[in-house]
């Protein structure tokens, strides 16, 4: 029996004050290394081998039967979750303390379908531009042979994170 069990992932939402106190790259890395909880949405895609560098986020996932749609392949929402997460976290990795973002829009192109037999997929998000009020990013999902499965672009609103009591 293996003495090293996989670390248990904690899911939750980081308090606003904690998120606002951290540079974006530190925040993303803290989620990836388990010092902060992983967002609950990640329970659906179970990312692993996650890395974050300034403006670039990479993680892996395995599509499964539980991700299937009624026509017998992986639902597009699986890819959408991976792509939106990769792009958003890439943007977040470039933000200073006290700054957050939200997705304004994103566009996805599905290139190849996925099934439970696809195996490990790699999601990579990269910033295109991060300004004071808006940011753009792109992401790609590839299979273990490097074939493109889906890609996307996004525009995010960048804003100051409100903290403290109203009126202060």
From TrEMBL:
CDD domains hit by this protein: PaaI_thioesterase
Classification via InterPro entries: ACOT13, HotDog_dom_sf, PAAI_dom, Thioestr_dom
Domain (Thioesterase) ranges: 72-149
Superkingdom to which the source organism belongs: Bacteria
Gene3D superfamilies to which the protein is assigned, alphabetical: Hotdog Thioesterase
Molecular functions (GO terms): fatty acyl-CoA hydrolase activity
Annotated keywords: Hydrolase
Family per record: Belongs to the thioesterase PaaI family.
Annotated protein name in UniProt: Uncharacterized domain 1-containing protein
């Amino acid at each position: 029996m293996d003495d090293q069990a996989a670390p248990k992932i904690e899911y939750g939402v980081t308090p606003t004050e904690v998120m606002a106190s951290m540079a974006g790259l530190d925040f993303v890395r803290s989620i990836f290394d388990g010092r902060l909880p992983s967002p609950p949405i990640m329970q659906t895609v179970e990312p692993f081998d996650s890395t974050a560098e300034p403006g670039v986020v990479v993680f892996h996932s395995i599509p499964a039967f539980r991700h299937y749609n009624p026509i017998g392949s992986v639902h597009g929402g699986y890819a959408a979750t991976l792509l939106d997460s990769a792009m958003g976290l890439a943007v977040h990795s470039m933000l200073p303390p006290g700054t957050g973002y939200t997705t304004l829009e994103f566009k996805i192109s599905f290139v190849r379908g996925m099934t439970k037999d696809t195996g490990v997929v790699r999601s990579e998000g990269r910033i295109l531009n991060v300004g004071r009020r808006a940011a753009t990013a792109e992401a790609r999902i590839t299979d273990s042979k490097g074939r493109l499965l889906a890609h996307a672009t996004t525009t995010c609103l960048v804003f100051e994170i409100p903290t403290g009591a109203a009126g202060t």
